[in-house]
Design a protein that fits this description.
With 500 residues, the chain is mostly helical. The protein contains 20 helices and 14 strands. Helix 1 packs across helix 10. The longest helix is centred in the first third of the chain and has 16 residues. Bound molecules: glutamic acid (GLU).
Length: 500
């Protein structure tokens, strides 16, 4: 049977990168086995609904190249795929559980439950307390009927058996055994007509014929209840795989937005503007990450291929992925490694692609340059860039004559006789016919020999004339791209401006 998997986010805010990883692993698993990938929106908790979150989730996954066969945005034979649009479907399933004696009505008010919590520490609505509370297990059938008919507030709770062992078989954790006496009688349905996450999730996974539930470890504590619900309904449960958490770069807790703010990296795929507070959270896309690099980095946070290979495109990930190689322990998020991946992908981009990007950045700065020059320059500096935007920082001096000169470099490299050397060197350049990097190197070499000078006497000073500081690629490459006329202009300007 071909697997059917789903990514089932709740639209309560932007999608955390841990959620993107969950979607990615589902996708890799489904694609490898020729199965189906489904996007289901779990929005039964109306109180936590955030406008724009669903669109954000869809756009994020699209950016990552995670494609869906069915879902809220693409449709499909098992729709609707948004739980609020399936609202009418759930009550009948709650009724089935009531009828089979696996669920019951509870009428306790919030105040009554609050009171219980105050008087009993560790109060739980469960097999040890339910017979003292206000529910259809303790009331007469006629009283229950009357309470419901007269519009009283109620919820439907799962009747968790006392003292039984439930086994969750998990692809990553193995057999997880839990005694039911530790579980509470979770609310499955509310009198506002909405199911809770637990009921809707199980009903939908069943109706959508989901074969594998691959989700974050924070849902592991819910899994025993889910296993029980499948049993109550007499349905076959899907297979489970609970993915380990993404951890803070420093310390052991779960990676949170606060860590990103504190350490200066995004924890969301795309930029997010909170609709209530207008607070802006940065995103990987807007920070200049290349989507395949971001995906590659996420894939390796928790899964290891068992080889030294680190660079995988999506097709390679699909071919190599396996749940068996997802570790049990959490993975520390490493923002530096994220940059490393971006750098690797940037280096794999062609000079032409990068040159065009550089040409666009230059244009935004009001500088027109021809494509050949931009491509040439991009090729010279790309090894120094992590992000496309770094190309400009690394190369702006190719396109602009320096308007300031680094004081520290002047102090160290501009001696009393430097201006004279530069003037003489410029004469030599002026007489050159081809201004190629090789010819420039030759010219400099013969200048040094003729004048009995060492490299140190002129190279750093010449760089200062050309770029205004001590950075940049091979000097002859810079001169050649800048061209003879402009080289001479820069040397003259430096001689006039730099005073020691
Ligand atoms: N709606 C849940 C979430 O927001 C889905 C959990 C699951 O995959 O079962 O993560």
């Amino acid at each position: 049977m071909k697997p059917r998997v789903r990514f089932a986010p709740s639209p309560t805010g932007p999608l955390h990168i841990g959620g993107v990883r969950t979607a990615l692993y589902n996708y890799l698993f489904a694609r490898q086995l020729g199965g189906s990938m489904i996007l289901r929106i779990e929005d039964t908790d109306q109180g936590r609904f955030v406008p724009g979150a669903e669109e954000y989730i869809i756009e994020s996954l699209q950016w990552c190249g995670i494609q869906f066969d069915e879902g809220v945005h693409v449709g499909g034979p098992f729709g609707p795929y948004r739980q609020s649009d399936r609202k009418e479907m759930y009550k009948q399933y709650a009724d089935i559980l009531i009828e089979s004696g696996n669920a019951y009505y509870a009428f306790d008010t919030a105040e009554e439950l609050e009171e219980m919590r105050k008087t009993q520490s560790n109060f739980q609505y469960d097999s040890s307390t339910r017979l003292e509370l206000n529910n259809s297990l303790t009331l007469l059938a006629s009283e229950v009927k009357e309470l419901i008919e007269s519009g009283n507030h109620y919820v439907i709770r799962a009747l968790i058996p006392a003292d039984e062992e439930v086994v969750v078989v998990d692809h990553i954790r193995g057999e997880v055994k839990v005694n039911t006496s530790t579980l509470d009688d979770k609310v499955l349905f509310k009198s506002d007509g909405m199911p809770t996450y637990h009921l809707a999730n199980i009903v939908d996974d069943h109706l959508m014929e989901i074969t594998h539930v691959i989700r974050g470890e924070e849902w592991l504590p819910s899994a025993p209840l889910h296993v029980l619900l499948y049993r109550f309904f007499g349905w076959q449960a899907p297979e489970f795989a609970h993915l380990p958490l993404l951890l803070k770069p420093d310390g052991n807790g779960k990676l949170s937005k606060r860590d990103g703010d504190r350490l200066g990296f995004p924890v969301f795929p795309l930029r997010w503007v909170d609709p209530k507070t207008n607070e802006i959270s940065s995103g990987y896309r807007e920070s200049g990450y290349i989507a395949p690099a971001f995906v590659n980095m996420l894939a390796l946070l928790g899964w290891n291929p068992g080889t030294e290979q680190e660079i995988f495109d999506m097709d390679e990930l699909i071919a190599a992925f396996s749940l068996d190689r997802v570790g049990k322990s959490g993975s520390k998020f490493d923002p530096e490694k994220a940059k490393w991946f971006n750098q690797q992908y940037l280096r794999m981009m062609s000079d032409i692609e990068l040159g065009k990007a550089l040409q666009n950045i230059a244009r935004e700065k009001g500088i027109e340059t021809d494509e050949d020059t931009a491509v040439n320059v991009a090729g010279l500096v790309k090894d120094r860039a992590v992000f496309v935007k770094d190309l400009w920082e690394q190369s702006s001096f190719f396109f602009q004559i320096p308007d300031a000169y680094d004081e520290a470099v002047i102090k160290k490299r501009w001696k009393a006789d430097t201006a004279a050397h530069m003037a003489k060197l410029a004469e030599g350049f002026e007489a050159m016919k081809t201004f190629s990097p090789e010819a420039i190197d030759e010219e400099i070499k013969s200048f040094l020999t003729e004048n009995e000078l060492g490299m140190g006497a002129i190279m750093n000073a010449l760089r200062l004339c050309m770029v205004g500081g001590g950075m940049g690629p091979h000097l002859a490459d810079i001169l050649s791209v800048v061209g003879k006329e402009n080289t001479l202009l820069r040397i003259r300007k430096a001689i006039e401006t730099i005073k020691t």
